[in-house]
Design brief:
alpha/beta; single chain; 7 strands; 4-stranded mixed β-sheet; Lambda Exonuclease, Chain A
């Protein structure tokens, strides 16, 4: 039975352009990739400098969130949770609080002035985690954490290559380090917290959409089976 990762709920909750279609093109594309992954036993690999930073500094982001949230000691959760529809691993899931941390790439991608959570993918992800844990609220914490040194070096090299420079330019290094190191900034300015409350209506809409996804997904698997048996 198909279960959707909480981190992927945003992929299936986009609406189709036509009212006559249950699933959007975005949703169908996601389900097609998922069918290929599961049928052939091959996981599509994706990485970027943004996700790499997020993974590397996750523990530091949790510690920073702990200081600002004042919800007691926070620790990284490794327990995988699932129900009949979804599965996922929340970043922090203590008796008192449910948190997901997102580390911004740099100071300009950090949401300094956002009044509400505008990222629907993150919203559905947290809604899924609340569904799995039974919690009535959750927190999304954007964190501005120093970029790992190895990535800073990559950025320094990239800017040198872009300007066709062989010898290091101290001004370029200073520019990159200023952009990616934040020890001079107060912690209160390095965490942006959005509180998300559980919404049963949203959960019901997720259930309905997953049921629709299962129909399309099963059709995809059946299509692959037909192609297989046609040549046996």
């Amino acid at each position: 039975m198909l279960k959707i990762r909480c981190s992927a709920l945003g992929n299936i909750m986009t609406n189709a352009r036509s009212k006559n279609e249950a699933l959007s093109k975005t949703t169908k594309n996601y389900l097609e990739e998922l069918a290929i992954e599961n049928y052939f036993g091959r996981r599509k690999y994706f990485t970027s400098k943004y996700t790499e930073k997020g993974n590397e500094v996750e523990e530091e982001a949790i510690r920073l969130s702990e200081k600002i949230l004042d919800k007691g000691f926070l620790y990284k959760n490794d327990e995988k949770l699932e129900n009949d529809f979804i599965k996922g691993i929340p970043d922090v899931n203590t008796n008192d609080v449910l948190i997901d941390v997102k580390s911004s790439w740099d100071i300009f991608s950090f949401p300094h002035f956002e009044k509400k959570l505008n990222n629907k993918a993150y919203y559905y992800q947290l809604m899924g985690y609340m569904w799995l844990t039974g919690k009535s609220c959750s927190y999304l914490c954007y964190c501005l954490v120093n970029t790992p040194q190895i990535q800073i070096e990559d950025e320094v090299r990239r800017l040198h290559w872009k300007q066709f420079l062989i010898d290091e330019n101290p001004e370029i290094r200073a520019h990159v380090e200023k952009l990616h190191l934040y020890n001079d900034i107060d912690n209160n300015l390095k965490v942006k917290i959005f509180k998300i409350d559980y919404d049963e209506e949203v959960i019901e809409s997720i259930k309905k959409r997953i049921e629709e996804c299962r129909v399309y997904y099963d059709e995809l698997i059946e299509e692959l089976n037909i192609k297989l048996t046609a040549h046996v």
